Amino acid sequence: MAEEEQPTMPEEEQPPTEVEANPQEDPLKDGIKSMKSMFRSDARNESNKLFRELDGDRSKSASHEEIAKFVASNDQLWALLSVNLDQPKEVATEVATRVAMELATELKGEEAMNAELNKDQFHNFRKKYILDPTGSQEFFFRAVFASFDKDSNAVLDEQELDQFLEIFYKSGSTFQGSMGTLKLPPKEKLHEIFLKEFDENDDKELSFEEVRVIISGQVNPDVAAEIEVAAAKAEAEAIERSERLEEERLEQERLEKERLEAERIENERLEKERLEKEEAASAENAEKEGLEAERVEKERLEKEKLEEEKAEADRIEEERRMRQQEEEEQKRNEEKLQEEQAKEKAPGPKEVLVEKEEDDSGCPLCEWLFGQPTPAK
């Protein structure tokens, strides 16, 4: 660790000596000068005290990590950034630390982040950007710029510029500036206006100096007028577009109603046609069913007739058969009766035998009685 240096004051801050004092000066002015000198001396002493507290390893320098602790403990450096850009404390503190390192070391990017501050650099930074209200505002402007300079190359490219412009649209599409509250056009148009007005070298990128007037709100009247005209034009176009969309919506609605009405009429026609076809088919089916029923009935009647005729024929045949049987039975009975009568009239055995012997041609009665003719002699 290097030897600790005795606190000294920069030449410009040394209190005036008696030789330098002018006895002709106004006592009030002398008092003011004396108070300023005392204030500067107190500020320096306070800076030295804070630096010693930061320099935990007594290296007579403050690293990035030590400055980060100092920034985090000073709400003035990050709170406004956090509120205006809706950033968490950690993000706002990190951005403020990067800006503090760059302003104190007068370096950029990684080179500034890797550097270490001596107590003079720390005091000068504190005096210029913390104690001085104008410098404090300048620090805030630079911190806003750094929040969108994601690659820390000290310029905002077109994508970073778009993200930067978004903060104005989150606050109600208005721009608070020296010309009062301006209505903003669409972001693409505002992007185009800002590049045209502030991109001095036409590289499609904006440095902090080019963006300062936007962040500070110190936009000149011509630019403000252009923004207002663009916003008014965009609003008129939006109204026209809205009216056109409403007309298109109403036309679409009308066409849809016509389509639905035509569809309803067509559905009714088709339904009517379907019902007529069903009725016709039903009538045709009924006719077919009637014809079929008539045919079936005719067949049934024909069948009944045939059955009746057959039954009548069977009855007649049965009557004929019965009559034939009766006739046969009667004939048999008659024959039987004749046989019985013949038996009663027949001669005795001897007579019969004689007659048989005398009859050369055979006896018919014998044939009938005995079933065979009597042989001839």
TrEMBL record:
PROSITE patterns, per the entry: EF_HAND_1 (PS00018), EF_HAND_2 (PS50222)
Annotated EF-hand domain residues: 136-171, 185-221
Region (Disordered): 1-58, 239-377
GO MF term list: calcium ion binding
Feature: compositional bias, Acidic residues: 1-15
Keywords, sorted A to Z: Calcium
Biased composition (Basic and acidic residues): 26-58, 239-355
Protein name: RAD54-like 2 (Saccharomyces cerevisiae)
Source organism: Seminavis robusta
Higher taxonomy: Eukaryota, Sar, Stramenopiles, Ochrophyta, Bacillariophyta
